[in-house]
Amino acid sequence: MPLPPDRxxxxxxxxxxxxxxxxxxxxxxxxxxxxxxxxxxxTAAGLALVTGACRALLRRSERSAAGLRRRAAGRQRDRSGRxxxxxxxxxxxxxxxxxxx
Length: 101
Description:
- This protein has helices at residues 11-32, 37-74.
- It is mainly alpha-helical.
- The chain has a domain at 11-72.
- It starts with 10 loop residues before the first helix and ends in a 27-residue tail after the last helix.
């Protein structure tokens, strides 16, 4: 199913792209407004550091959410709604029961 035109397939990359854009734009504006080159370079370095940290945290949370979705999808339920070993009809004795006459 294709995504709507207003949705990106990878929103984390979009956020990082905007962060990189701001890392270039903010020092440029600082220099235009009369700040020192050293101050603009320090600001650019700080913004790059924050952008990198945010990217790492976003990717980590994305992996964590994907793991939770995988675990939730992997659970099986029986007719009564129970999950776990009973839902898979496994357990200690399984299907080896003998009929009682």
